[in-house]
Amino acid sequence: MNKNIIAISSPFAGEEEWLATRESFETGWLTQGPKVAEFERRFAEYHKAPFGIATTSCTTSLHLLLVAMGIGPGDDVLVPAFTWISTVNVILYCGANPVMVDVDPKTNNVTPELLKLNVTDKTKAVIVVHLFGLCVDVAAVRQVLPSHVRIIEDAACATGASINGDFAGTHSDAAAFSLHPRKVITTGEGGMILTRDAELAELLTKLRNHGAEISEEARHLGPKPHILSDFNLLGFNYRMTDIQGAVGVVQLSRLKTLLCQRQQLASIYNDKLSKYDWLVLPFQGENIQHGWQSYVVHVLPEKAPLSRNQIMEIMQEKGVSTRPGTHAVHMQGYYLKHFGYKPEDFPGAQHCHENAMAIPLHNKMTESDCNYIVNIFDLLNSSLESLCVE
Predict the structure, then answer these.
(1) Tens digit of pLDDT for each residue in 289-310?
(2) pTM of this prediction?
(3) Alpha helices in the chain, H assignment, sequence order
């Protein structure tokens, strides 16, 4: 086999994005301004949400949401044990208590039943993660929670994804998206909040700009230059730049095409890798439009020819980048030290942590790239068959 170089992920952007930033430089409006406002409006319209609030990252979006909802010391926030670490970190930023909830290895996500088991009188909010682009049924989650418990969707991986025809943010208080380069569309770094709550949207808009009562656009473009904003809230500087907003507008115009291409690549994998009983392919389910931020398989250790890590090393030798799906937060050093968790405390998350593997899926890939990767799995399976014969 010839050695290819296939990245785990690669942002799809080009001259159109580069040219879109020109206006920001020519006008001198580099920080948050009209391009961010346009991006917020278009992103919200695409996902059928009334309000969009752009931020510096999905992490800061989640932090802002917890602050805006009044989550603080003494409050419990339910969160999946298998997720990117910032999903849990933001709870600690607020002085609240993260309550880990195990995940279903079939989907890598929490379920309504698992969340319900962990609700107590101290539960004030739940963060539901749509991992790798597969949406949790938030409408079902809402039904099992007390009405006062706030629901936040970590939709970092779920731009353009939906379940039962509903985009993220439809059945929750708000959803937070990532625009990191490993996502389907990107602004470099960046995040977006979607919500249907007008009061929450207004508060978030103030909090991301130091708590200012007047926006920068209104202050600089208004007829009274002597007005300086009042600051009645303790806020943050979580503003997106207009350079990023300009890029985001172009990227969003590509979203449907990018999602369609990823679905086609995922279908090739689904078709050609389904014959191996030692690989568990990504769950899709009925009435789910997967976002395909990543294509994540599980390597079953009791059946596979080699361990997941050995398979990843072979892939690397043959020019194919892979990554663990993500990590079990309760197995990370900080959380082991400060909370005393053991790996076996959350067996579903531990299984995903040890066996989940992301293989390349991005919009610069070709069908021949997929076939090259499938051929490596074929070789691995051949080695397993030869061992069985022996």
Answers:
(1) 999 999 999 999 999 999 999 9
(2) 0.94
(3) 15-20, 22-27, 34-46, 58-68, 86-93, 112-117, 138-144, 198-207, 216-221, 242-253, 255-273, 308-317, 333-339, 347-355, 367-389
